[in-house]
Write a structure and sequence with these properties.
Helices cover 42% and strands 18% of the residues. The protein contains 6 helices and 4 strands.
């Protein structure tokens, strides 16, 4: 059974598990669970300190998944998101280092800091 099927079978249990960490933000927790069920994305906005990162960490922990955070800065490169190949001198081979995009839950933080042309290229499909 994949994560989405498990969540669809018991969304209230998942919401309760996240709500033990995120107190008083029932709407945010429900939005995160609904987005997970629908296979969609969530735009979490708010002032610093309202537990956006903690909510994403709690969601990843509740589903038994991985969580990664990308801090968007003007000097961010595509390899910072998708990963790259690195030469290993000991073995003489190249090893793939996977970037944060391969996590189950990815928080793309402070997208507004990224310069516009690069920002628009990041979200094309």
């Amino acid at each position: 059974m994949d994560v989405t099927s498990a969540v669809r079978a018991r969304p209230h249990e998942l919401s309760a598990a996240i709500a033990t960490t995120i107190i008083g933000q029932r709407d945010t927790v429900e939005m995160l669970v609904l987005a997970l069920i629908a296979g969609g994305h969530v735009l979490l906005e708010g002032t610093p300190g309202v537990a956006k990162t903690l909510a994403c960490r709690a969601l990843a922990a509740a589903i038994g998944g991985t969580f990664r955070r990308v801090q968007f800065t003007p000097d961010l490169l595509p390899s910072d998101i998708v990963g790259t190949r690195v030469y290993d001198q000991r073995s003489g081979d190249f090893a793939t280092v996977r970037g944060p995009i391969f996590a189950n839950i990815l928080l793309a933080d402070e997208i507004n800091r990224m310069i516009f042309p690069r920002r628009s290229r990041c979200w094309r499909r």
